[in-house]
Amino acid sequence: MANQRPKAIIFDIIETIFALETVRPELVRLGLQASDLETWFAFGLRDAFTLNATRAVKPFPEILKGALAQLLAKRELDPPVEDRERVFEAMRNMSAHDDAAEALAILRDANLPVYALSNGARASTQSLLDNAGLTHFFTDLLSVESIDQFKPSKPVYDHGVAATGQRAADVMLVATHAWDCHGAKMAGMQAAFVARGQVYPDVMVAPDLTGVELLDVAHSIVNLNAPAER
Amino acid sequence: MANQRPKAIIFDIIETIFALETVRPELVRLGLQASDLETWFAFGLRDAFTLNATRAVKPFPEILKGALAQLLAKRELDPPVEDRERVFEAMRNMSAHDDAAEALAILRDANLPVYALSNGARASTQSLLDNAGLTHFFTDLLSVESIDQFKPSKPVYDHGVAATGQRAADVMLVATHAWDCHGAKMAGMQAAFVARGQVYPDVMVAPDLTGVELLDVAHSIVNLNAPAER
Predict the structure, then answer these.
(1) Which of A95, B31, B103, B202 is 20 to 30 Å from the Cα of A194, by its Cα?
(2) Cα-only R_g, chain B
């Protein structure tokens, strides 16, 4: 069956809209390698998913702080707390990807309502979007805080879908993380993968769309056939 | 309340009993950095926990293959399949930590039954223990395969506890992974953390015991007060 155009779009935020690259030099300043950005974030997700699986969720920044402490110890580094804090300051000041505004404008011009759904806190998501001048593109910012679970758990996607007022099959998640696209697919949604050179693993449910950048994904979405009226 | 000596011990296998260090040079041969060992394994756990959360579990080696493909693409490397396979061959030939046999002997001499519970397959766990001459220390090898979930999900620990015939509170998990100790604690078990220089994150439930190496943990366990008879 050919894909049908979704009636609402839910965007992941960290890495999908905002680049973690501003954080990389701060990790190097702590003595870590540039390539440890991926290690740190993977440690953070591993631990977030652990807390999720045991229904013992903590705020994502606290989890990332613990992940940084684990990574620094693994690399036998022990920088002072104030130096570590610069990593999180850089994260609060992430820049949007160059094509984010144009991609969001394409969806707006196609009358597709757009929502944000991050594993981060609502307030920090709001702040990132405000600083980047992107808030006006979003119909609403949805928070995992009200669910007390993280993506890729189904209740989080269900919460996002409910906010759009659409059926899950008519809502598309856009993310640059395979694990997030997989979670959305398992929750009955459509999913678009922003690849940026990444490989999508075979063990996960494939996305409906893959684009190299946000702009490719936005173009692909509006080029899908409109859903049949019910 | 002082800790009481457990009546049975469940060991994690990969990294806890066997060192991943044999894999590190194989990653370097693929063009990755030595420090990418941690990145690769964290990618694998992140993806395993994703599949766990969505009840779409696949065998752990397949997940690790997907994690390696993602990491290689992230580092803009594309080695041939047969070169990648050497990583998994090295993993099948991991060596036990130097103090594993002595630690297991201490527990045996204290009449504490010992079980293995890995997120890996039963067959590969059996093969690792056989090659290392450690099988005779184990009362049984328990498998996540019969549960179709991974640690840190509670049903996996429940399965392990049931096999020991003891109450969860009288069974101790030994692992060098904070996420595994946390999972055991959340399932009502005791947990011992083999630190090996690692930091245990604040966001997780603390273990009952921490030792630098397996031998420290084994000594600490047998030095605990014996549980009261019921």
Answers:
(1) B31
(2) 18
Query: Smallest CA–CA separation between A148 and chain B, in Å?
Result: 14
Please provide the size of chain B in residues: 230
CATH fold label, A8-19+95-223:
Rossmann fold (3.40.50)
> Options 1.10.150.240, 1.10.10.10, 1.10.238.10, 1.10.540.10; which CATH number does A20-92 get?
1.10.150.240
A residues 167..206 contacting B (CB < 8 A): 178-179, 182-183, 186, 197-199, 201-205
Q: Can you state the angle between helices A178-186 and A154-164, rounded to 10 degrees?
A: 70
Q: CA torsion sign, B17 to B52 to B209 to A64?
A: positive
CA distance B46 to chain A (A): 4
Q: Tell me whether 0.90 is exceeded by the ipTM.
A: yes
Among chain B residues, the shortest Cα distance to A32 is held by B35
- Roughly what angle, to the nearest 10 degrees, separates helices B36-53 and B60-74? 130
Domain boundaries, chain A: 8-19+95-223, 20-92
CA distance linking residue B101 with residue B105, whole number of Å: 6
Q: Going by CATH, does the domain composed of B8-19+95-222 fall within 3.40.50.1000?
A: yes
